[in-house]
Every structure is written in C-alpha cells, then in structure tokens.
C-alpha cells in the first residue's frame, strides 16, 4: 500500500508568523522540517504527504510551496489567504499560479476566530467563488460550535469540496458527544464533505487512555462511510501525545474494525482523489 499522509505541518520558528506557537508549548517550540520526518515516512510506507498551513500568512503558504518544490514527497499544499480581503480572489489566483499545481486547498484558522458564525458571512463569497474556479479544496479547521456556520456555507456553495480536519475536534470524554455526532451526520448528507481521521489523540484529556477515541472514530465511519474518510498524522502536533508509528498502528487497527476492507481508501486512495494528487510512480 502506498500511504498518503493527508495532514502534516512544517515550521521554522525564525519565520516569526506562528502566533499560536509559544514557549509554553515546549514539545512543539522548535523547528520541524521535512528532514525530521523522512525516517518515519520510510518506515511506514508513506510516499506522499499533504503539507497544511500553520500560520495566518500568505508568506507561510509560499514557504510550504517552496518546500514542496524541493521535496517530491510533498504532493500538495493546503495554504492560507485572508478570506475577507477585498482582493481575495486575486490573491487566490496568484497563489495558484505560483504553486503551479501544488496548491491543493485553503484553510482559514476558523477555530481561533471569535465569531462562531464567521464561515457564514456573505463577504466571504468571493473567496469561495474563486476556490471553486480554481478547483481548490476547503480544509475546515473547526470545532463543533462552528458546524452550523459550515452548513450555511455549504448552502451558499454546495459544490465546495470540504474536509473536516480532525473530525471537527470533539471534546473527547466530555458531554458534547450527541451534539457533535448530530452535526457530523448533517454535514455527511453533503456527498462532497469528507472527514480526516487525524488529530483525535491530542483532543484527549491528559489522563485518558488512547482507546477513548474509539466511539468517536466509530461515529466518523458511521456518518461518512469507508470511502469518505482519509488518514492524517497531524505531525508534529501529534508528538504531544504519541509517536508517528504509534498513531499509524492505532489507526490501522481502528480502520480494520470500522472500515474492514477499505484500508487502501482511508490510507491513500481517498486523499489522492480529494486533493487531486497524482498517482505514485510504479517501482521499476
């Protein structure tokens, strides 16, 4: 199986545009570059990754595109633009041209915005119109309280290809399971909405066992089915809770239980289809 890791971050502190990355996040407060990940990718048969933005700047998107041009294993980039900018459409066009096929999607950091209804704002329409023109995917970095606004956005742009990052970040072990599950079920009615099997371990309470994510994973597959779920590591954020190989093994076991026979989709095929990634080059 040629594995695709659909959610990886890289950053260099000296760039200075990671407002959320502070010394208090000790395990993450250092540089994480492609060379740090190669051994883990090799060990687990990962031949393609999607690099996802971690800063609210276009400069960081250009940095990721630069990495992708230098590292063939970075098959695509999910970047950032200011969606409310008057020239948002022009900015998207410029990044697409600069990326020359490597820009696969965009991701505003909705989870950090004060307005839970931000995604429904009409002034975002030109940016989403431009995403559709350029065939870009939308990575929804949302929490459960943002799901109604995402529903409203899909009413305005029903053709938008959406993937829920980290299963919309449920409060694992809390009392919000029913509301989160209902929100997922409603979004899953849109056939072009998918969900990432990623980021759940770092939503666990500090004293919880990793097995506590199982009901949430079961709900993801119940809502989206085996062919609309794609695996991602969320490295290096993952390292706060587990090693790359630990999460990969746990995810394989979860898929075997909840999507038996569909590992090739979850770990590769769905990500390639969703992000319009090229097929791997066959070995000679």
Give the structure's gist in a few sentences.
The chain is an alpha/beta fold. It has helices at residues 38-43, 58-70, 88-99, 125-133, 147-156, 177-187, 214-224, 244-258, 263-274, and strands spanning 3-8, 46-52, 74-79, 103-106, 137-140, 162-164, 193-197, 229-231.
**H/E element string?**
EHEHEHEHEHEHEHEHH
How many strands in all?
A: 8
Task: State the secondary-structure class.
Answer: alpha/beta
Strand content: 5-15%
The end-to-end distance, rounded to whole angstroms, is: 16 Å
Radius of gyration: 18 Å
Strand order of the largest sheet: 1-2-3-4-5-6-7-8
Largest sheet: 8 strands, parallel
Mean pLDDT: 96
SS element count, helices:
9
Helical proportion, percent range: 25-40%
Low-confidence stretches: none
**Shape verdict:** globular
Short key terms for the protein model shown above:
eight-stranded parallel beta sheet, 284 residues, alpha/beta, single chain, globular
Any overview of this molecule?
This protein is α/β, with parallel strands linked by helices and 284 residues long. The protein contains nine helices and eight strands. It has helices at 38-43, 58-70, 88-99, 125-133, 147-156, 177-187, 214-224, 244-258, 263-274, and strands at residues 3-8, 46-52, 74-79, 103-106, 137-140, 162-164, 193-197, 229-231. Strands 1-2-3-4-5-6-7-8 form an eight-stranded parallel β-sheet. The longest helix has 15 residues, at 244-258. It is globular, with a radius of gyration of 18 Å. The mean pLDDT is 96.
Topology diagram in text:
Blueprint: E1 3-8, H1 38-43, E2 46-52, H2 58-70, E3 74-79, H3 88-99, E4 103-106, H4 125-133, E5 137-140, H5 147-156, E6 162-164, H6 177-187, E7 193-197, H7 214-224, E8 229-231, H8 244-258, H9 263-274
Parallel strand pairs: 1-2, 2-3, 3-4, 4-5, 5-6, 6-7, 7-8
């Amino acid at each position: 199986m040629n594995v695709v890791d659909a959610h990886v971050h890289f950053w260099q502190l000296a760039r200075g545009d990671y407002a959320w990355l502070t010394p208090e996040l000790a395990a993450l407060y250092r540089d994480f570059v492609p060379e740090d990940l190669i051994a883990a990718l090799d060990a687990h048969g990962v031949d393609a990754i999607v690099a996802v933005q971690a800063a609210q700047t276009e400069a960081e998107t250009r940095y990721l595109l630069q990495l992708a041009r230098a590292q063939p294993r970075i098959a695509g980039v999910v970047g950032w633009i200011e969606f409310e900018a008057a020239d948002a459409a022009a900015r998207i066009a410029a990044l697409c041209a600069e990326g020359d096929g490597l820009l696969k999607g965009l991701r505003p950091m909705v989870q950090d915005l004060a307005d839970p209804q931000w995604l429904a704002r009409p002034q975002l329409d030109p940016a989403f119109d431009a995403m559709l023109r350029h065939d870009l995917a939308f990575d929804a970095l949302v929490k459960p309280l943002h799901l109604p606004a995402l529903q409203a956005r899909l009413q305005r742009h029903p053709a938008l290809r959406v993937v829920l990052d980290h299963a919309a970040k449920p409060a694992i072990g809390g009392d919000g399971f029913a509301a989160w599950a209902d929100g997922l079920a409603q979004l899953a009615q849109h056939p072009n909405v998918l969900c990432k099997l990623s980021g759940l371990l770092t939503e666990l309470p500090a004293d919880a066992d990793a097995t506590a994510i199982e009901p949430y994973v079961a709900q993801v597959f119940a809502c989206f089915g085996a062919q609309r779920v794609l695996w991602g590591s969320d490295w290096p954020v993952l390292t706060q809770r587990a090693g790359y190989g630990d999460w990969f093994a746990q995810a394989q076991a979860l898929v075997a239980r909840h999507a038996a026979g569909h590992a090739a989709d979850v770990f590769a095929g769905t990500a390639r289809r969703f992000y319009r990634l090229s097929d791997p080059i066959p070995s000679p």
